[in-house]
């Protein structure tokens, strides 16, 4: 499956923070800027976050054969819709999705919430962070509820864990839901 560039110059779509990308049959969304999360939910409404995706990543129902399925913008997003043509590039795109799923599964497997959260913050720093003189700036504006949904826990539990990590000096909370992960706490996991 190759991502075609038809029409010759694909239209760049702009989406606001918290808007939902429309699902297009047999099309992918290629994220040009911003961050989206793919998610599903259980019968009782419990959200299950499938992944977080940024510039250069492809998302779409064609990749995640899950129903229900949703692509939500966690920031302002620019994306282009590309049709599926043949199988040439599918292996790379699927490998990328599988790797992220495996990384998040490992992070969610830790027993202690504070450990799970610190590992998630390290993963976010690796994926979306910017190096500063004192650590990695995680400039993805995730609410406590967003972090709780990613880890399958409650917002209250995340708030307590963030307070604990801040008191230990592992993180510094900045305005607009941004975090600074201290250099000595950065953890990278590669498969």
TrEMBL record:
Keywords from the UniProt entry: DNA-binding, Transcription, Transcription regulation
Entries under SUPFAM superfamilies matching the protein: cAMP-binding domain-like, Winged helix' DNA-binding domain
Domain HTH crp-type: 111-185
GO MF annotation: an example: DNA binding
One Pfam family matching this protein: HTH_Crp_2
Magnesium recorded as keyword: no
Domain of life: Bacteria
Full protein name: Crp/Fnr family transcriptional regulator
Organism of provenance: Pannus brasiliensis CCIBt3594
